[in-house]
Amino acid sequence: MCKPDAVERGLVGEIIRRIEITGLKFSRIEMRVVDEATAKAHYAEHEGKSFFGELIEFITRSPVVVCEVTGPENTWEIVRKIMGSTNPASAAPGTIRGDLANSISANLVHGSDSAESAARELANFFPSR
Ligand code: ATP
Ligand code: MG
């Protein structure tokens, strides 16, 4: 997912390009505003944490670009490598967050952290599929 800050800053093309040039395929792309219920389901693992409220407010504040990326079984792992660490302060140069972000809360992208998470998250964002 390209988060609201990525859309606001005009970085969607740059983010997609960095993933697409690895050979992974974008099988679905949709821009939309995420509603609160979908956001809370998406980030259910973080419920109760100090930053949860801020996280939901952030992810629902303006349009995001939800993407399904298709490739080998470990596609999620490749995408997360391209994204870089959660905190841009420790994200390596050459990664999306390392090169383009400076805030842990506005860190431009979300990527599933396992094949199981990817299946769950895609079902949450594309329920009719
Ligand atoms: P994402 O799930 O968005 O891909 P991630 O898997 O790298 O990121 P998570 O630990 O799942 O990181 O945290 C989800 C999101 O919550 C992070 O991307 C970040 O924006 C926010 N977040 C995580 N930790 C903090 C924190 N300590 N303070 C503020 N925001 C945080
Ligand atoms: Mg995560």
Report a brief summary of the structure.
This protein has 129 residues and is of the alpha+beta class. It is 42% helix and 12% strand.
Largest sheet: 2 strands, antiparallel
SSE order, one letter for each helix or strand: HHEHHEHHH
Count of runs of 4 or more consecutive helical residues = 7
Q: In whole angstroms, how far apart are the ends?
A: 18 Å
Mean pLDDT metric: 97
Rg value: 14 Å
**Roughly what fraction of the amino acids lie in strands?**
5-15%
Shape: globular
> How many extended strands?
2
**Unreliable runs:** none
* Helical/strand content category: alpha+beta
The small molecules bound here are: adenosine-5'-triphosphate, magnesium ion
Helicity range:
40-55%
- Tell me the strand order in the biggest sheet: 1-2
Task: Explain what this protein looks like in three dimensions.
- The protein is built from seven helices and two strands, in the order H-H-E-H-H-E-H-H-H.
- With 129 residues, it is an alpha+beta fold.
- The chain has a two-stranded antiparallel sheet with strand order 1-2.
- The chain starts with a helix and ends with a helix.
- The relative contact order is 0.20.
- The site of adenosine-5'-triphosphate has 10 residues, from loops.
Give the topology, please.
Blueprint: H1 4-8, H2 12-20, E1 25-32, H3 36-42, H4 52-59, E2 64-70, H5 75-83, H6 96-100, H7 115-125
Antiparallel strand pairs: 1-2
The chain binds adenosine-5'-triphosphate (ATP) and magnesium ion.
Keywords summarizing the entry:
alpha+beta, two-stranded antiparallel sheet, 42% helix, binds adenosine-5'-triphosphate, binds magnesium ion, 129 residues
